[in-house]
Amino acid sequence: MRTLTILEPGKVKVQDTPVPDPGPGEVQVKVAACGICGTDVHILRGEYMGDYPIVPGHEFAGQVTATGGGVARIRVGDRVAVEPNIACDNCRNCLNNRQNFCLNWEAIGVTLQGGMAEYVVAPEKAVFATGELSFEAAAFMEPLSCVVHGVERAGIELGDRVAILGAGPIGLLLLQVARLRGGVEITVLERQEARGALAEAYGAQRWVRDVEALSAGAYDVVIDATGVPALMAQTVGLARKGGKVLLFGVPPSGAELAVDAFAVFERGLTLRSSFTSRRNSYQALALLESGAVSVDKLVSHRLPLEAFEQGVSLIEKGGDEVTKIMMVPDMAP
Ligand SMILES: [Zn+2]
Ligand SMILES: [Zn+2]
After folding, report:
1. Measured in angstroms, how far is the CA atom of residue 102 from the centroid of ligand 2?
2. CATH classification of 153-273 is 3.40.50.720, yes or no?
3. Ligand nearest to the CA of 105
């Protein structure tokens, strides 16, 4: 099979490798679509995680082509998406329902072979049947599950006014789930015209280009989806007294956050972050299958494995036309 491998930071190769056989309790999936995520960018650049050499890709969907012994819930031919975080289910954190902090954590596309290959194997417990969903929509199960977890942590209440900083694919998912959760009058900060227009199409009441155009101290909940420390720091000034802040975007590792510490105290703010997801895949699928969350306008590019670095640089440049980029492993180069 054709496999994209990051040999070491900055060094990528598409090579022929044996198709992995499913062992007991494992499922073999032929990958149809695999989104490029910021984490893949960080692994390519050597900034974050990654056990090299690694086949990246943790946001993917495809069709089951084989199952190992003992697999019961998933069948050959099923259309599926995969939850990439593999928890051991037997450590102190797993047994306290904190699977996202499993002490023996592994992740497909980070420590285990990922979805940027024609085939991948995954433990059955990580595989979810996706019914009639398109493969591309199903590939959003993972990022959407992280968004569901984040919005639950944000504690949005009915009628809350919400500000969301950043309208990339994740910001646009946060926007939709925040609305479902009861957020109203959602304002989105986004510099790019096309993304701002998408935010309006997905239900934002308004979008603004500059952070100065947001109202200080006005929002019940402020969500950062940029990971830009200078913007993350401004969330504190935007939240109302007693309000909540969710830091969702991934900042560069080692970056410092300079917030007005006295303001956090005096204004009784709740600051939270959110790390991956915690058993949110079925919720994500229900949102996608019901149409409650739409990803129809979120895919901007479809690329063969050979164009991975091109896809990454499109994301890094962050052009107006770039939303989610899907790698299609069986697309000819
Ligand atoms: Zn991701
Ligand atoms: Zn564990």
Report:
1. 4
2. yes
3. 2
Contacts of residue 73, defined as CB under 8 A and 6 or more positions apart, other chains included, come to 124, 129
C-alpha 53 to ligand 1 mean position (Å)? 19
Ligand nearest to the CA of 83: 1
| Distance in Å, CA 87 to ligand 2 centroid | 5
Q: Nearest ligand, CA of residue 86?
A: 2
**Within 10 Å of residue 263's Cβ, how many Cβ atoms?**
14
Span from the CA of 232 to the centroid of ligand 2 (angstroms) = 31
Q: How far apart are CA 25 and CA 95, in angstroms?
A: 21
Residue 333 has a CB neighbour count (10 Å cut-off) of 9
Residues of the chain with CATH 3.40.50.720: 153-273
pTM, to two decimals: 0.96
The pLDDT tens digits for 220-238 are 999 999 999 999 999 999 9
Domain spanning 2-140+298-327, CATH class: alpha beta
No. of H helices and E strands in the chain? 9, 17
pLDDT tens-digit map of 174-185:
999 999 999 999
In the reported structure, the alpha carbon of residue 39 is separated from the centroid of ligand 1 by a whole-number distance in angstroms of 6
Q: How far is the CA of 190 from the centre of ligand 2 (A)?
A: 38
Q: Is 101 left (phi over 0), alpha (psi -120 to 50) or beta?
A: alpha
